[in-house]
């Protein structure tokens, strides 16, 4: 569970600040894939309505997200030990096709729902 949350957190670092109206635009209808150092992949799907769904192997999860100032904040229905709720991270610009490092994860934003 914590792995999925951390993957969502690092993937959140890819949000673009380039769009004045909606910094999450590059996410809608696309897949954010976070791969940890052990090769475990988490796929994340951001909805324009503030929902975040994802899957890691056979496990699926749902969260909510919102932008507060220059941070992406994820809210969990059940708090995760050792993490604040909501959990907020600063965002950086990325677009579909980009790959970057987020901590011990490689994060890629790919076109479409994968």
Element layout with pairings:
Elements: H1 2-12, E1 31-35, E2 41-46, E3 51-56, E4 59-68, E5 71-75, E6 87-90, E7 99-102, E8 105-110
Describe the structure.
The chain is mainly beta. It has a single domain, classed as Beta Barrel (Lipocalin), CATH 2.40.128. It is 10% helix and 40% strand. It contains 1 helix and 8 strands; from the N terminus they run αββββββββ. An 8-stranded antiparallel beta sheet has the order 6-5-4-3-2-1-8-7, covered by helices on one side. The radius of gyration is 13 Å and the shape is globular. It starts with a helix and ends with a strand. About 8% of the residues have low confidence.
Can you tag this structure with a few keywords?
114 residues, mainly beta, 1 helix, 40% strand
């Amino acid at each position: 569970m914590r792995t999925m949350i951390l993957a969502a957190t690092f993937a959140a670092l890819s949000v673009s600040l380039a769009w004045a109206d909606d910094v999450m635009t590059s996410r809608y209808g696309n897949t954010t894939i976070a791969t940890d150092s052990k090769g475990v992949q988490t796929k994340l799907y951001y909805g324009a309505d503030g929902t975040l769904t994802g899957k890691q192997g056979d496990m699926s999860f749902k969260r909510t997200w919102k932008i507060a100032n220059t941070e992406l904040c994820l809210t969990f229905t059940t708090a995760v030990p050792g993490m604040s709720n909501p959990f907020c991270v600063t965002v950086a610009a990325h677009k579909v096709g980009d790959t970057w490092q987020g901590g011990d994860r490689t994060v890629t934003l790919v076109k479409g729902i994968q």
